[in-house]
Amino acid sequence: MEPMKKLIVFVCNGNIHRSVIAAAFFTNILEELGLDTQYQVESYGLQGTLGTPPPLHKKLKEYPKEWSAAAPILHEFDINIDHHSYQKITPAVAQKAAVIIAMDTKTYSAAPNALLKQFPNAAQKIHSFSELTPGHKDITDPLTSGSQQLHRNIIGAICSTLLKNTDGVLRMCNAHAK
């Protein structure tokens, strides 16, 4: 019987951009390192939880302005998010995850439906992406921006942080794995 993979979860507000990109890129890293048999990476969003509305669309491609800004940069980083479709974080996912990484403070603790508020019993395995970044900076939500430079900065920060801190993410995961 194959051992169960440890689940690494990235979460942002809408599960359209940042968490999706982080999950796809980290999956690429794990595959290159031959660790994809030990870990599974998924992404989720806060929107649609605790009575909040889900995002207007389910894929980044369905937001033309944002997609046209992000698509060339995703291609440069060899990140394919074509098959991703929005999904909200659930108690079952929070329980199953070995680690949950919030892309910003709003997602981590500030929003009315923030991870720490929804899943206080999982607090020990909920981390902020800023723990991995120089100067502990959040990854900005591009919201409705069509700025290619903003998307380049965001995607670049996600990718460089994960490349430099692969071991840090795996330590977070292994510290809380069942």
- Please state the CA-atom Rg, rounded to the nearest Å: 15 Å
Annotated CATH homologous superfamily: Response regulator
Q: For the record, what CATH class applies?
A: Alpha Beta
Mean pLDDT: 94
CATH topology: Rossmann fold
Distance between the termini: 17 Å
| Main sheet summary | 4 strands, parallel
How many β-strands, per DSSP? 4
Instruction: Using the alpha-carbon principal axes, give the shape.
Output: globular
Summed up, the domain count is 1
| Percent of residues in β-strands | 5-15%
Low-confidence stretches: none
Helix content: 40-55%
Strand order of the largest sheet: 2-1-3-4
Helix segment tally: 7
User: What order do the SSEs take from the amino end to the carboxyl end, as H and E?
Assistant: EHEHHEHHEHH
Q: Architecture, according to CATH? A: 3-Layer(aba) Sandwich
